[in-house]
Design brief:
alpha/beta, seven-stranded parallel β-sheet, six-stranded parallel β-sheet, 15 strands, globular, disordered N terminus, binds uridine-5'-diphosphate, UDP_glucos_trans
Length: 465
């Protein structure tokens, strides 16, 4: 179903203000605009400033408005998540409320607020304005099912979950496979509250629940969630241009969102399937010992690599530091960047393997683009995603850590060898390519996710609260 651009109605898209949440919602927005909706992305003032510092021209396919999280001048050095989440809820609700009032007065009242499921308060604000609310899950169906089935076993900082956990459609999950909020709730009380308890607090009142996943990947698992919520799988949130050439005019738009990094030019010079792409997402701060082992393992492997080493906010100082002498020692083989257009890198012919932390977006992107993975999760849902990558979808392998929890340089070298050459590498690639085809089928016209998006658009356009 294609309607004339902008004629299908206006929706707001409100992500939780970190990259791993903005990216999939931005990609989903792109699809909605292709279906004819007018989309306004609502981000915090900080996000807006960061986006404009990277690229002065906003993405052309949508409008941008901002709300405030109460920290318009940046996060404090003594950043505390619970203070932040409280402020985001309080100031965010007020500023979203004012935004909806203003848009109504300007005659562009949205039909629906598509809000990140980490921001359940947005549903209350939307409903107070008589506007539909669609929760958007940026984590897997498996993770959300675990939260749904076990949320009554959590209290503040504690859980009485016993492992292993057995859920139909999932592998047996040991404690080390569970999202860290479930296995170590005492370490992450603020996340536990936000991600498990608050997220589910009003989800049964949402008019739609959209999930960044697709039927052949997690269809069987989705049944439990679908009993509780009006669930629609609309993913993977990867533009079709990377899966085929369906939306050819979008090519390059992601690269434009970030600082120009000549990473793609560097990759053009490398042989086909010769390079490992290493990235631990936007938030992970790797301790010094682990950075050293990865660095010297990469060096010893003698393989080409692109490594994203994020510059971290002040409260994570001392992490993500490269060892002395590494850049000089690897200057002919490696490129270290602070950010890159990941979708373009993963779809580059030179890339043979993705060493990843298994954030849900990176997992879906690697899988959808047919790239074998080395799965090295650090915390949150990454642990469960990694279990599925290696044991269920069979597109990746897990490095073994020593008794300090560190993956040593010899293990880095071994994993790269196995993931890039020989029978294990070939099998993972075959599996990954199969998943890539299934992802493409889901998004192609008439595919399961495409149909779900069409139904969502049609319902939004013709239904009132
Ligand atoms: N990403 C990117 N460039 C980079 C590193 C990451 O574009 O150099 C994107 C990546 O494609 C993904 C998102 O940032 O869409 C990271 O989300 P993910 O869920 O994988 O991890 P998180 O950052 O939330 O831990």
């Amino acid at each position: 179903m294609e309607v004339e651009k902008g004629r299908g109605g206006h929706v707001l898209v409100l992500p939780y203000p970190t990259q791993g949440h903005i990216n999939p919602m931005l990609q989903f927005s792109r699809r909605l605009t292709h279906k004819g909706l007018r989309v306004t992305l609502v981000i915090t003032i900080q996000n807006l400033q960061e986006m404009r510092a990277s690229n002065p021209s906003d993405p052309a396919f949508l409008d941008i408005e901002h709300i405030s999280d109460g920290f318009d001048d940046g996060l404090p050095v003594d950043f505390k998540l619970d203070t932040y989440v409280d402020s985001l809820k309080r100031v965010g609700s007020q500023t979203l409320d004012s935004l909806l009032t203003r848009l109504g007065a300007e005659g562009v009242r949205p039909l629906c607020v598509i809000y990140d499921s980490f921001l359940p308060w947005a549903l209350d604000v939307a409903h107070a304005h008589g506007i539909l609310g669609a929760a958007f899950h940026t984590q897997s169906i498996a993770i959300n099912t675990l939260y749904l089935l076990h949320h009554d076993k959590f209290s503040d900082k504690k859980t009485d979950i016993t492992t292993p956990i057995s859920v139909p459609g999932m592998p047996i999950l040991e404690s080390s496979d569970l999202p860290s909020y479930m296995s170590e709730p005492e370490l992450y009380p603020a996340y536990l509250k936000m991600v498990v308890l608050d997220q589910l607090s009003n989800m049964d009142q949402a008019d739609f629940v959209l999930a960044n996943s697709f039927d052949s990947l997690e269809g069987e698992l989705s049944r439990e969630l679908a009993k509780a919520f009006p669930l629609k799988m609309i993913g993977p949130a990867v533009p079709s241009v990377y899966l085929d050439n369906m939306i050819a005019d979008d090519k390059g738009s992601d690269a434009d969102l970030y600082k120009a990094v000549n990473c793609l030019g560097w990759l053009d010079e490398r042989p086909v399937r010769s390079t490992v792409y290493v990235s631990f997402g936007s938030l992970v701060g790797m301790p010094k010992e682990q950075m050293e082992e990865i660095a010297w393992g990469l060096h010893a492997s003698k393989r080409f690599f692109v490594w994203v080493v994020r510059t971290l906010p002040r409260h994570l100082e001392g992490r993500n530091l490269l060892p002395k002498g590494f850049s000089e020692a690897t200057k002919d083989r490696g490129l270290v960047v602070s950010w890159c257009p990941q979708l373009e890198v993963l779809s580059h012919r030179a890339v043979a393997c993705f060493w990843t932390h298994c954030g849900w977006n990176s997992t879906l992107e690697g899988l959808s683009l047919g790239v074998p993975m080395v799965a090295m999760p650090q915390w949150t849902d990454q642990l469960t995603n990694a279990k599925f990558v290696s044991d269920v979808w069979r597109v990746g392998m897990r490095p073994k850590a020593d008794n300090r929890g560190i993956v040593g340089r010899e293990e880095v070298e071994r994993c790269l060898r196995e993931a890039m050459e020989g029978e294990t590498a070939a099998e993972m690639r075959r599996n990954a390519e199969r998943w890539s085809e299934l992802a493409k089928e889901a998004l192609d016209e008439g595919g399961s996710s495409d149909r779900n998006i069409n139904e969502f658009v049609a319902t939004v356009c013709f239904r009132q609260v």
